[in-house]
Amino acid sequence: MKRYLGNYFTKGCALVMTVAVAAGALTGCGKTEIQEKAETGSVTSEAAEPSTDEELITLTVRITAPDPIPGIQDNRVMKAVEDKFGVLVDYSHSDDSINATSLAAGDLPDIIQVYSTEIDTYIEGGHVIALDDLVSQYGQDIIKNASDSLEFSKNYITPEKFKGTLYGLIGGNYLVKDDVAPQYNYVYGPMVPWNFYAEAGYPEFKTTEEYLDVLEEIQTAHPKTEDGKSVYAFCGWNDWGIWPFIVPYCFSRGYMNGDFYIFDAEGNLQPMFGEEAVLCKESFKMYNQAYQRGIYDPESFTMKYTDYETKRKNNQVLAPQAGGDGYFLIPGSAPVVWEGYGSILAGSCDRVLMISKNCKYPEKAMELINYLYTLEGANLFYDGIEGIDWAMEDGKRELTSETIQERLNNPNYPLETGVGIYHSLVGLSPNTKHEDGNYIDLMTSEKAMKERVTEVDKGFCDHYQVSYPGEAFQKAAEEGKCNIQFFNTTWQALMPDMPDDIKLIKGKIENYSLDFVAKLILSETDEEFEKNWETGNKELEEMGFTEFYRWNQEANQKALEALKSLK
Hints:
The chain is of the alpha/beta class. Helices cover about 45% and strands about 10% of the residues. The chain has 24 helices and 14 strands. The protein has helices at about 5-10, 15-20, 30-40, 75-85, 95-105, 120-125, 130-140, 140-145, 145-155, 195-200, 210-220, 245-250, 280-295, 305-315, 360-370, 375-385, 400-410, 415, 445-450, 455-465, 470-480, 500-520, 525-545, 545-565, and strands spanning about 55-65, 70, 85-95, 110-115, 190-195, 255, 260-265, 270, 325-330, 335-340, 350-355, 390-395, 395-400, 485-490. The strands form five sheets. Strands 2-3-1-4-11 form a five-stranded mixed sheet, covered by helices on one side. It is globular, with a radius of gyration of 24 Å. Residues about 1-55 have low confidence and may be disordered.
């Protein structure tokens, strides 16, 4: 049992991650000064003595996140690791082709991160080693800070044949359960461009019709960009399946998306198609109403995501799927504000770190991994180095004001410093509480939130009399105007793999669904929409959609029952 979030949500993970860590870049000093600080020992480290070049060993690491440039990592974060452990990290990206080739050749890196769905191949092929003894000897912080996810990995990530043995380590663990860092802003739902919304007089809206009225008014007032390009309220793209056509609406109604179903925070499912597909049909209908009004971009089904991004950055989209500079949700305009997702119990259990049998230094590898599960290690990887990036203020870690502005304004900061680009390696969630009262990610501290406010955001904050945008939604939630919802998705990891016959049906649905949704949204009349809905669902039924959905329902129910025994 090791399946995690559905296909279409993982398609959107890049977008979610962009929103979540968009401010994760900074450079406080030039490279020479950084090197000088490291060489003089002012870089925070508990190592007894800095390592010499002769003592250094190299650990090859392949992880799923594509952010760092491959090769020996040369930045101040990894310089601190080098000083502490005498280790150089030789990083590479993971993808299906590279993984398949290295498996066939038996040529794996020392440390490898794979998706939980792929772990069977590595274990059954004898490509990785069991970690129980190494964790017992060199992983005391892993045991201390991630004991729940260790048990989860042994019993639910490890395949049945090897159940009870630890092979994969799960990152992103929460030290304080059910205490998730507040967001600087919330970006899924009925968006508006703030400057034009203010110009229109801040019109209130609650219903879909009222929302479309507001966007139509804005588009009528601003039909073209300064360079003469057409502006539309909504726009989509065709290389993420149907993700762009369901997520904003469903998220703002308290649901996330899985494999052709959506689910609420309790794990209850609703199909994307068929008679029971209430919310997804409403989403398709909203976009169809926009199309009939002339405020939906007719090129939405012929564009790639990169084309959409070009239009969005050129101000040709009034209501993007996931925000962006100058775009805002309106507090109280939708019943639910989506805060994020993850497993409170078992961290980022969709992927695991393993040590390959080729590793010549498994003890050193485990020492390094253990460090990633400490507050010091998480602080280094997410926030940088004391005295350069952050300092103690009133007993708490705080980013310097200069650092906050660098993270906001220097897009090269992560690559230059190493801060924030190794997030998929770190054993603790950036959104979990640190012992000093702030969260691990210091961009979520009260100081940082206030200093992050840009000129673009200031108008929104002034209007709602808040110090940063997210505070407006927190106030609205306290007043009962909306519910801020974090999704604890542990149960998804307890779902079994799909049998081959269900996978076959899924493939048919995937091949058909985008064309079906295109016909729905581009229907010329309400009658045509209903006719297309009926015809498309009939064809999906013939493909086996009901059988596919019922399998997911039953598997979901078993996963929810299994979760009860873990709480």
